[in-house]
Design brief:
3 helices
Length: 70
C-alpha cells in the first residue's frame, strides 16, 4: 500500500486496476475467471481480510502475472 492512506483507498485503486486487467485479458477465459474471483472477494473485503485477499493475488498470479504488482 505504498503511498496509500487507507485500506479503502488501496481497495478502490486495486479494483480499478483489476477492471483494466479484465479488458486486457478479455479473450482468456481462465484469466477472466481468476480476476472475477478476486473482484468478488475484494468487493466485500475489510482490512482484516487483507491476508486472504493477498493470498488470492499470489495464487492468481500464475494465470495473470500483473496481480503481483497490485
Amino acid at each position: 500500500m505504498r503511498g496509500m492512506r487507507s485500506f479503502r483507498e488501496w481497495k478502490a485503486v486495486t479494483i480499478s486496476r483489476l477492471l483494466e486487467l479484465e479488458r486486457k485479458y478479455r479473450n482468456n477465459a481462465e484469466a477472466l475467471e481468476t480476476i472475477d474471483v478476486i473482484l468478488s472477494k475484494l468487493e466485500y473485503a475489510k482490512a482484516r481480510d487483507l491476508a486472504s485477499v493477498l493470498m488470492l493475488f499470489h495464487h492468481g498470479s500464475k494465470v495473470v502475472p500483473e496481480l503481483l504488482d497490485l
